[in-house]
Fold this sequence. Notes:
alpha/beta; Helix Hairpins; Pyruvate Kinase, Chain: A, domain 1; 2 domains; five-stranded mixed β-sheet; 5 strands
Amino acid sequence: MATLREIxxxxxxxxxxxxxxxxxxxVAAAKLRRAQDAMIAARPYSRALDGLLKDLLSSAGEExxxxxxxxxxxxxxxxxxxxxxxxxxxxxGLAGAFNANIIKFAEARIREHYAEHLKTKRLSLxxxxxxxxxxxxxxxxxxxxKHINVFTKLDFSTAKAIxxxxxxxxxxxxxxxxxxxxxxxxxxxxxxxxxxxxxPVLDRNNLPAAQKxxxxxxxxxxxxxxxxxxxLVPRQLETQVWKSxxxxxxxxxxxxxxxxxxxxxxxxxxxxxxxxSYNKARQAAITKExxxxxxxxxxxxxx
Length: 303
């Protein structure tokens, strides 16, 4: 059985840990509020940009059908497709299963959809966040670009750099498909692992649905819709990457706040259990001392 001194030391240690987790919960809550505000502010712009893109596609006519950026290039061989995955994690831990879930989701997607690509070295990664970078680097994946410590001070320039790099690789025909894998923020306690297609912008096999108008009236564009698309598509890619970073950042802070709240509650429960053990041990020590005194007194009386 632990001594009273050992129990007191452990209680003090758990109390110190509880103060740390409580402080981290409050910091995460403050960061979550700012992250949610930024994420919510970006959503209307992203929706409006998607709607404008669809209207432009419906007005651009048949000349867009050959656009490699919008639909990708025609593959000479069906089994020659090259895929690039952009995997977004966090830079820090202490966020529950946040990083484990997105890494597990990415590996499951690779097994289910890109196992042959991985085997024939037609799969590469861009990692965002230290956790995903460390995980996939240790396992020998082909990583063409790394972005670490981006969530310390999240900036739009990071999203632009990722989008520009992706456009460059896609435009040079280095890859035929680029996907974004990230944690989508649903609520403080819920994150959904999501995989979105970044490039090509549209599915060539689903052209009619892609060109469905979002309004009942027709705009007159100046200059021509095809020219506007050349400017709009890069902006749409940057916005899509930026939105995924904002979603992941908000999801991370929510996961960390939930994890630290749970850790604080567990610490309090452990303190209560340790305090009970301490009281039992102290009562046993007192009882033992009383018995020794009584026994000594009886011995003296008999003597």
